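Dear H.,

Thanks for agreeing to be a second pair of eyes. The structure we're designing against is below in token form, covering all 293 positions.
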């Protein structure tokens, strides 16, 4: 048996739509694999009742097929599906790493990124690497096509997850079809600021670079209480706040001394909006961890 822990991730980070991603040190999925004649899947944990166990409909089934590695796969979900925290990507990344080890395929983590991306496509309808890249490689990632750049950043974060669901497909449907020159220039500037902040481990620059006038406003409208939660986090000391991935999760950059106060403020703001939520005091962390049993 091979076991892999794969972290939650936050994609886009505001200004880096479909390109930026970051591994979080918590929460995480645990995936265990054993050789079998055909692939079977068991799912337990947070939101397991919403995840199909049919290999043709599950991210890990697509990964097993791509690697020609049939297995009995057990997924213990620590990351709720439809959360904006890379739930499907974490499972796909974990399965890719575990099956590569189990069958001794000899692929590097970078080579596994597009394979995990095929699993992600089972849920989103398209191959996207902004979640699976940081889930496998850790840190802050910039994924353009199959080219992935990794920055070993150390930025404190708070991820707040409301008890509402926003599907990746629905969130993509509201993305504007075009942009003005002014919007493009603004977004490029913010993305450059965020990247500089990651390279310098500067929460102020990272937070400033999260601001986005193009995709985030459209997706924020799908999240009840978003504006109140954002303002509460900023008032509590967050340097920047944005939608995590497709939502409804919200991610805030901060300094370590403000993390607890920001987490409490975000949960309270959601409560005032009539929405239950949970907050994770986290940071940019490492990628999937492999254990051979």
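And this is the sequence the design step returned. I haven't edited it by hand at all.
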């Amino acid at each position: 048996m091979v076991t892999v822990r794969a972290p939650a991730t936050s994609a886009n980070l505001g200004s880096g739509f479909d390109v930026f991603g970051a591994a979080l040190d918590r929460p995480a999925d645990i995936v265990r694999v054993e050789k079998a004649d055909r692939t079977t899947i068991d799912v337990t944990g947070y939101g397991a009742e919403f995840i199909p166990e049919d290999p043709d409909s599950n991210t890990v089934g697509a990964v097993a097929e791509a690697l020609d590695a049939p297995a009995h796969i057990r997924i213990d979900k620590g990351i709720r599906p439809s959360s904006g925290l890379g739930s499907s990507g974490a499972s796909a990344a974990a399965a890719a790493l575990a099956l590569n080890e189990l069958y001794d395929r000899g692929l590097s983590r970078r080579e596994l990124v597009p394979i995990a991306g095929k699993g992600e496509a089972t849920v989103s309808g398209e191959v996207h690497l902004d979640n699976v890249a940081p889930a496998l490689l850790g840190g802050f990632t910039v994924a353009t096509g199959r080219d992935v750049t990794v920055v070993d950043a150390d930025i404190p974060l708070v991820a707040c997850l409301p008890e509402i669901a926003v599907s990746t497909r629905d969130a993509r449907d509201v993305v504007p079809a075009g942009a003005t020159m002014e919007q493009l220039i603004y977004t490029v500037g913010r993305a450059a600021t965020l990247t500089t902040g990651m390279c310098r481990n500067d929460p102020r620059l990272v937070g400033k670079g999260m601001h986005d006038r193009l995709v985030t406003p459209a997706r924020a409208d799908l999240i009840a209480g978003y504006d109140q939660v954002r303002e509460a986090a900023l008032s509590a000391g967050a340097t920047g706040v944005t939608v995590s991935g497709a939502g409804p999760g919200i991610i805030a950059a901060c300094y370590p001394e403000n993390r607890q106060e920001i987490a409490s403020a975000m949960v309270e703001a959601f409560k005032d909006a009539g929405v239950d939520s949970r907050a994770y005091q986290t940071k940019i962390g490492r990628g999937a961890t492999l254990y051979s049993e």
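Two observations from my side: The chain is about 35% helix and 25% strand. The mean pLDDT is 94.

Warmly,
E.
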